């Protein structure tokens, strides 16, 4: 198995295959007996996992899949909260997985090691930015992976590879010790082979963290077992007259079924037809019903533009640390090699070395030169969105539009409703023709809305086809969104749908 996994999917030492093989052999029987006798246990003991290489592990290189952080080496002085929580269990951390550089990408093509394609359909992109995690899960090397989701980074690759990708409510899981991309949208997330595994992992990592004030209202609780027989019992925020709610209501967004003036291709038409059939089954099932709603204003076709304005603007401020003015976590030997003895004598503390100087200007140029083209493009656009009056006229107006989206979705989901849609309009694009240039995807607009509103959302396996191009398997996921902090309810609904045979 290890021989078939490319180095592009891994961020780790050159002998990672040897290290992983040794770990798997030493834990072979523990994992076997755990699978045999404890598969229904709420514990995650002896489950194997990876961490996206934007999540810090003390004294372990964190590159964010960027050449800018490879040389000089960057080693975090402390581990992330998530890593510390998982380390207290007997779960087995096998490896760190690669990503699009700094999480800036949606296809797995922008990592510093090169492109990653799907294991089952090598001519197609795997999805990103959590591309390495999707690959390792697809090869069944790991049981789950901790990733981040800023605009679908867990759910889109899950959809393309027939996996489960879950983004919890904003503030449920601590972001302390994770390379930031966009403070407003970044959410630690979970990818796995089953919704049950996600519930078990969420029970471990969802705790209040004094180092991350967004988690101040988080209460530690168990998300497993799920409420399969009656998911409505898992609702945290009971609406008025909740006793009158007898069925789970699935909401289809009218605008998401429209594509403006763009014609659908044959496969897109087939996906929409399958979605309508699913809605029909939900409408006539004894415990579920369906309603159709509109978002109206702001229109959902603005979501991609709003995402770029907000995310690109915020990443500029986060990555000022690589401008050369502040350069964290550089090893001491780098200073030894690059700073003369005379200069060290003149400076009585290392903090004073953080002054703007010729040395730092030179270092800044070297670091920026190592960044990939997509990172540079996003930085330039981010600077533009914040330049002069643009901050008020573009960035702040985008934030106001997000507030309007939040208000509308809060209304739609106030009585335990679930927004349902395909995760994307089509299967994964071909690698050689993939372009990051904006294209209209009304279903993926709903993926972005979950980030804008901080709502729990999940992509689950749904459709599969055989590609006419090379007879390979291709996949399409189903996307579901619930109200804020109704994470267990959402996971319970997914399990209910699967156990009842509706999907």
TrEMBL record:
Q: Which residues form a coiled coil?
A: none
Which SUPFAM superfamilies did the record assign?
Answer: Amidase signature (AS) enzymes (SSF75304)
Any one Gene Ontology molecular-function term assigned to this protein's record: catalytic activity
Q: Which residues form the Amidase domain?
A: 50-490
InterPro entries, per the entry: Amidase, Amidase_dom, AS_sf
Name this protein carries in UniProt: Glutamyl-tRNA(Gln) amidotransferase subunit A
Question: Which taxonomic lineage does the organism of this UniProt entry have?
Answer: Bacteria, Bacillati, Mycoplasmatota, Mollicutes, Mycoplasmataceae
């Amino acid at each position: 198995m290890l021989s078939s996994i490319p180095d592009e999917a891994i961020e780790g030492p050159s002998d990672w295959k040897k290290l992983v093989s040794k770990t798997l052999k030493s834990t072979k029987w523990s994992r076997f007996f755990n699978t045999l006798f404890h598969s229904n246990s709420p514990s995650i003991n002896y489950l194997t996992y990876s961490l996206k290489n934007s999540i810090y592990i003390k004294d372990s290189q964190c590159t964010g899949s960027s050449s800018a952080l490879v040389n000089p080496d960057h080693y975090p002085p402390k581990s992330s909260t998530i890593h510390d929580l998982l380390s207290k269990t007997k779960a087995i951390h096998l490896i760190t997985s690669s990503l699009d550089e700094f999480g800036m990408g949606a296809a797995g093509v922008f990592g510093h090691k090169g492109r990653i394609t799907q294991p089952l359909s090598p001519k197609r992109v795997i999805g990103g930015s959590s591309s390495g995690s999707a690959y390792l899960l697809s090869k069944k090397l790991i049981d789950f992976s901790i990733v981040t989701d800023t605009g679908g980074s867990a759910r889109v690759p899950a959809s393309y590879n027939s996996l489960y990708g879950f983004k919890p409510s904003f503030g449920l899981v601590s972001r302390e010790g994770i390379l930031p991309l966009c403070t407003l949208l970044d959410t630690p997330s979970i990818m796995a082979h089953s919704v049950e595994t996600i519930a078990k992992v969420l029970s471990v990592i969802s705790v209040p963290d004094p180092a991350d004030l967004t988690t101040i209202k988080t209460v530690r609780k168990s998300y497993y077992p799920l409420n399969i027989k009656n998911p409505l019992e898992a609702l945290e925020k009971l609406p008025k007259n909740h006793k009158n709610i007898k069925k789970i209501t699935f909401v289809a967004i009218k605008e998401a079924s429209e594509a403006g003036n763009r014609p659908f291709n044959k496969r897109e038409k087939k996906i929409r037809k399958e979605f309508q059939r699913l809605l029909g089954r939900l409408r006539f099932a004894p415990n579920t019903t369906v309603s159709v709603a509109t978002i109206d204003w702001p229109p959902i076709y603005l979501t991609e533009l709003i995402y770029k304005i907000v995310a690109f603007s915020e990443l500029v401020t986060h990555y000022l640390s690589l401008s050369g003015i502040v350069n964290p976590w550089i090893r001491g030997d780098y200073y030894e090699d690059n700073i003369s003895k005379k200069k060290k004598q003149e400076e009585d503390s290392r903090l004073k070395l953080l002054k703007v100087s010729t040395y730092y200007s030179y270092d800044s140029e070297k670091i920026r030169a190592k960044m990939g083209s997509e990172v540079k493009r996003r930085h330039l656009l981010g600077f533009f969105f914040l330049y002069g009056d643009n901050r008020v006229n573009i960035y702040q107006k985008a934030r106001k539009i997000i507030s309007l989206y939040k208000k509308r979705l809060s209304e739609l989901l106030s009585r335990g409703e679930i927004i349902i849609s395909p995760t994307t309009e089509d299967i994964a694009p071909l690698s050689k023709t993939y372009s990051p240039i904006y294209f209209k995807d009304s279903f993926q607009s709903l993926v972005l809305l979950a980030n804008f509103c901080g709502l729990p959302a999940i992509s689950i396996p749904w459709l599969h086809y055989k590609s006419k191009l090379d007879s390979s398997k291709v996949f399409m996921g189903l996307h579901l969104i619930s109200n804020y902090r109704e994470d267990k309810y959402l996971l319970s609904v997914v399990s209910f749908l699967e156990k009842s045979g509706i999907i």
